[in-house]
Design a protein that fits this description.
Potassium transport protein Kup; 2 domains; transport; 7 strands; two-stranded antiparallel sheet; 3-stranded antiparallel sheet
Length: 106
């Protein structure tokens, strides 16, 4: 079942498990817990302290011979390493986040 609001939806994947999909513009800064508080008639009670957030995370590894010129590869890897951490970007409590990561060679 889809619950729709302006730029978000919450499909229920299994009893008690929701997948949140929200769309934000380039200059907007998401605040996911605040967004969930604003959902009218949420089928599952929203208790922030009981939520575990599962996030994907990629670590960029700059290797030679993967199709990019050296300076581009190193510049891109530098920018990714210095970008805002995903937990901070979505304003999630760090002690409730599980990150599933992988290494990506460029």
């Amino acid at each position: 079942m889809w619950k729709r609001g302006g730029d978000w939806c919450l499909p229920e994947r299994a009893p008690g498990y929701l997948q949140g999909v929200a769309h934000y513009g380039f200059m907007e800064q998401p605040h996911i817990p605040e967004l969930l508080h604003s959902v009218p008639g949420l089928a599952v009670p929203f208790v922030p302290e009981e939520i575990t957030w599962y996030l994907g995370h990629e670590t960029i590894i700059a290797l030679e011979g993967h199709g990019m010129v050296a300076w581009q590869r190193n510049c891109f890897a530098f920018m990714v390493r210095n970008s805002t951490h995903i937990t901070n970007y979505y304003r999630l409590p760090g002690d409730q986040v599980v990150e599933i990561g992988r290494r990506v060679a460029i």
